[in-house]
C-alpha cells in the first residue's frame, strides 16, 4: 500500500465521526477516570481524546494497515501531519506533531 493511500485511509478513519464515536462510547468512563488521572483531568475529556486517544488510534491503524512496527507507524503519523491539515482544514485548528503533543501533556502533569 502506497503512503498516499495510507494517508487517505487515515484521514477518512480519523474524521470527526470517530472522535464523536469515542466520546459517546467512553466519555462517562473517562470522566470517572479523570478524578484519579492527572493527564485526563488536566485538559478535560475532549482534549484527552483529541491529544492522546486519536493519535494512538491513528498509530494502531497505520501499524495494522501497513504491517509495520510501532516505531515506523509513529514515523508515518508524524509525516502525515501536513497532509492531514490540508485534507481536514479548519480555520482555527492546525495539528502539530501528535507525539510531541502527548509528551507535552504528560510533562505538564
Give a description of the structure:
With about 110 residues, the protein is mainly alpha-helical. The protein has one domain. It is built from seven helices and no strands. The protein has helices spanning about 5-15, 15-35, 40-45, 45-65, 70-80, 80-85, 100-109. Helix 2 (about 15-35) crosses helix 4 (about 45-65) and helix 4 (about 45-65) crosses helix 5 (about 70-80). The longest helix is centred in the middle third of the chain and has 22 residues, at about 45-65. About 15% of the residues are buried.
Helix content: over 70%
Low-confidence stretches: none
Structural class, judged by helices and strands?
Answer: mainly alpha
The residue-averaged pLDDT reads 76
Radius of gyration over C-alpha positions, nearest whole angstrom: 14 Å
Number of helices: 7
Strand content: under 5%
Number of E-state strands: 0
Write the layout of secondary structure elements.
Blueprint: H1 3-13, H2 16-34, H3 38-43, H4 45-66, H5 70-79, H6 81-87, H7 98-108
Helix pairs in contact: 2-4, 4-5
Output the keywords.
mainly alpha, 7 helices, 109 residues
Describe what is shown at a glance:
This protein has one domain (3-108). The protein has helices at 3-13, 16-34, 38-43, 45-66, 70-79, 81-87, 98-108. The mean pLDDT is 76.
Amino acid at each position: 500500500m502506497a503512503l498516499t493511500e495510507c494517508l487517505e485511509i487515515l484521514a477518512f478513519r480519523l474524521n470527526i465521526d470517530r472522535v464523536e464515536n469515542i466520546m459517546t462510547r467512553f466519555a462517562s468512563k473517562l470522566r470517572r477516570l479523570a478524578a484519579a488521572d492527572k493527564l485526563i483531568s488536566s485538559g478535560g475529556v475532549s482534549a484527552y481524546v483529541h491529544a492522546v486517544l486519536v493519535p494512538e488510534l491513528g498509530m494502531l491503524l497505520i501499524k495494522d494497515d501497513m504491517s509495520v512496527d510501532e516505531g515506523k507507524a509513529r514515523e508515518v503519523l508524524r509525516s502525515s501531519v501536513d497532509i492531514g491539515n490540508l485534507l481536514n482544514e479548519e480555520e482555527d485548528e492546525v495539528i502539530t506533531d501528535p507525539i510531541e503533543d502527548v509528551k507535552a501533556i504528560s510533562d505538564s502533569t
